Amino acid sequence: MAPQLHVLRHGESTANVEGVIVSAPGRRALEEVGLTACGREQAREAAAAARAQGLGAHTLVITSDFARARQTAEEFAAGLGAAAPRVDERLRERGFGAHEEGPTTAYDEVWGRDRARAAHPDGVEPVAEVASRVLAALAAADEEVARGADVVLVAHGDVLQIALALGAGRDPHDHREVPHLGNAELRELGPGRALAPGTTC
Fold it and tell me: 0.90 exceeded by the pTM?
């Protein structure tokens, strides 16, 4: 089977359980807000499902440096018997500006403005800026795939929804029209199928 590029959303995090947004690259995101016990189990289950689909020790795992993604990548890579994950800061969570540490109910407002191609007056990172850094990360991953490695990018909801939209040839502003990634869901980038559907806790 030809090498493939996949994306993996992080497992359940403490912020998911608390229902708060943590997107600024400070101590909270980089160190404190990690996986729950369930999130770690989700990452291990994703690795087992991926192994059954042919991924293994040859897989290159590349991750956001945020704790919840990095811990997911570590569990996933260990489950595959793969090398320790590489870090790519371009895979960090989308910045949610004034919504930082606020309730996740704010996402609906942000996504509505995305769909409308409206500006974000509250410091939210624009879709175009997220898409730019995601495209750069994808280009680097594509080079690894061309060299024969299966690659899994481990990151966050909005970042990966935008990546999936780009992979499907859609406007990234319509990222919420792409089927939503669950926690620890592994999906082939582009027209493809879920290799490891996210499991609930």
Answer: yes
